[in-house]
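Structure ticket #2291
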Amino acid sequence: MNSRGGRPPGRFLLAVIDAGGTAPPALSLGAELVQRGHHVRVLADPTIEPAAKSAGCAFSPWREAPHFTSVTEQTTLIAALEGGNPYRAFRSAKGYAGKTMTSRFARDVVSTVRESPVDAILADGLPGILIGAQATRRPTAALVAQTYVRPTPGLPLLGTGWSPGQSLLGKARDKVVPMTASWLLRPTLPRLNAVVERYELIPLDNVFEVFDRCSRVLVMTSPSFDFTAPHLPENVRYVGPQLDDPAWAADVKWQRQGSEPLVLVATSSIYQDQIDLLGRIAEALRQLPVRAVLTTGRAVDPAAIQAGPNVEVLRTAPHARVLRDASVVVTHAGHGTVLKSLAAGVPLICIPMGRDQKDNTVRVLRLGAGIRLSKKSTPAQIAAAVTEILERPQYRAAARRFAEVLAWEATHRPRAADEAESLLRL
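Resolution: structure written out below.
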């Protein structure tokens, strides 16, 4: 089979880890490349194998590199890392990864390419994965499945939830803090360079130079959603969000019930200690004249959520289908849920719990397309926020305006698959 334009099919390695929301966009890219006639091999945690094969990709598991063999194993580690006990977190991280993590990821990438040759590599941004990809001398694209992550003067630091500074003090903060973050990571350089030099690559001057050495850095969000700096590295490309539902949700059958306004509740697809929050959201919705679909994700048993008869509690649901009827989304503000909601023109109630969720929330607020609540909000506060979204049309109007922006970008800007195919010409 030939790829689009009559070119012979390319061979891609898609090397990713199961970090929850980062995997589905990468697998969507893999599926599109397969649809275009290319061959894609996914190198990933065994938990991703069913989704990779559903996308039409070949699959190889991480062998030496740290990996999860089950959702339970993943949940146990995340609970330890984010549970607030520093000693337990340290011990768990050490047991999972250890000092040799970088070299183990690199070795797995190199050995996989040796066993199953490819023309180009698409890789998560972990240093070990990128170093291994660069060691193969194949064109490599780093995949960023959210807003731009690299500390960059002029941009707020990832994880802070800041907006770009407008005052002299704020602008100084956005210049100094990213430089400080890079400086704080300098002690890790010797360990990274030991792996770099093992593959006869030029030593890194800073940790983030591993991105600069990629042929492309594909930022899988909208440039209109993100805060962009005046000057980004020449290899950075914004390729828009991947809006497909993950394979484990897309095939679920769902049909709307009732005619009341529909609320979609979607928190993390992996463990984030979200049972209590989901319970408070369900209690809030019980009080309102609405219907709701509450998805718990792979890490939470739906039976753990006590809900009223107007709230349908499911482990998974096809969000793309639900969003066609939804009036509001209540979410932890993960990047995937936020962009899918905005693309459908549905306003959001953002309840960030950690990770990059504050960053996504502040971007939603900038658009005027939603409300922010504390993760400690009471059912009454959550109910009041849902009522405000439903009764004030400016939120939906803002979400619909941005949906038009996303639709325009999708037809006027190169897609992730287009940029991936460009690697075959390097």
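Closing remark: The first strand starts at residue 11 and ends at 15.
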